[in-house]
Specification:
The structure is a single chain. The chain has one domain: TIM Barrel, CATH 3.20.20. The strands form two sheets. Strands 1, 2, 3, 4, 5, 6, 7, 10 and 11 form a nine-stranded mixed beta sheet that branches. It has a two-stranded antiparallel ribbon with strand order 8-9. By secondary structure, it is of the alpha/beta class. α1 packs parallel to α4. The relative contact order is 0.15. 31% of the residues lie in helices and 15% in strands. The N and C termini lie close together (7 Å).
Length: 329
């Protein structure tokens, strides 16, 4: 199989290899680097405001434990849903850190932005979309947004409707009717079906695929979703899949060539786009010697349709080195 279309470059939590994830600074940098889409993970505050934050917890990326001691739940974690927006605005965001064990407080990726430089704040989804629309205008370009609904069933049990909140922001900011500029993604299949069938959103949806042992906020069987029958099921409500890179790259054969699953080919045969995650130069899979090699495996060999990366500039530079005829493989 070959294609003449380069894969889209999706800035994973912004240019998070260089600046703390999901800060407006990380998103502005990714925009300037030329990423095709920028990702927004969304959770809700206690007063129902959609904020851009990867976790339902605040403690791994903010100073919440120092500013609001005693506000943790019984499990020791600080939940965004337990804080009003005014309180969340008081927090300072830092590089992601470990929150338990002997490495508590240490950066997950030590070579990135210094943890002690907590210079940033938690943006609302509306604020980020307004900033990106402004950058599109001032830079004369069109950049997409790639929104993940985080733990929608958990939010529902806490009494808040994440899907409705996200769609309300998209309506207010003018993005709700822009299917060419927005993807909605979620690990939960029923949430995506609810968005498309009950809430009638015209926006394309991506079924995220994890591993069953991760404990994602869904009852779906991710191993099943990677089978032909599972992909048939996904194709009935979504326009693509977002698999983990290890669902595609299976290591190297004894002769040194990469071993690939059939997931990309099987999904594309059903009209599904394939946007795997996450491509990091400082976290390479076993057997991969360089970031360029990793990109070659997925772009030239696997033929994916998009890539989530913490380093959008490096992926864009790599794509520029492809043959001028655009043949990926």
């Amino acid at each position: 199989m070959s294609t003449t279309r380069s894969p889209i470059v999706i800035a994973h939590r912004g240019a998070s290899g260089y600046l703390p994830e999901h800060t407006l600074a990380a998103k502005a940098l990714a925009h300037a680097m030329g990423a095709n889409f920028l990702e927004q993970d969304v959770v809700l505050s206690r007063d129902g405001t959609a904020i851009v934050l990867h976790d339902i917890h605040l403690d791994s990326t903010t100073d919440v434990a120092q500013r609001f001691p005693g506000r943790a739940r019984n499990d020791g974690r600080f939940y965004a849903i337990d804080f009003d927006l005014d309180e969340i605005r008081q927090l300072r965001v830092h590089e992601r850190t470990h929150v338990d064990g002997s490495r508590e407080g240490c950066a997950v990726y030590p070579g990135r932005f210094p943890v002690e430089h907590a210079l940033f704040t938690v943006p609302t989804l509306a604020e980020e979309l307004d900033m990106l629309a402004g950058l599109d205008r001032s830079r004369g370009c069109l950049t997409g947004v790639y929104i993940e609904l985080k733990s929608p069933n958990w939010h529902q049990r806490e009494g808040l409707d994440l899907s409705a909140a996200v769609l309300a922001v998209l309506e207010k900011t003018g993005y709700r009717e822009r299917p060419e500029q927005v993807f909605l993604q979620c690990f939960d299949d029923l949430t995506l079906q609810h968005l498309g069938r009950r809430l009638a959103t015209p926006l394309p949806m991506i079924q995220l695929i994890g591993d069953n042992e991760w404990g994602e906020d869904s009852a779906v069987d991710y191993e099943y979703l990677r089978t032909p029958a599972g992909l048939d099921y996904v194709a009935s409500y979504a326009q693509g899949i977002g698999p983990f890179i290890s669902h595609i790259y299976l290591g190297k054969a004894a002769c040194g060539t990469p071993r690939l699953s059939e997931l990309v080919e099987q999904a594309q045969a059903r009209g599904l786009q394939v946007h795997p995650y996450t491509f990091r130069k400082d976290d390479l899979p076993v057997g991969i010697e360089s970031f360029s090699e990793l990109l070659d495996v997925f772009i030239r060999d696997a033929g994916v349709d998009g890539l989530f990366t913490d380093f959008p500039d490096l992926v864009i530079d790599h794509l520029k080195q492809l043959p001028s005829d655009g043949q990926l493989r």
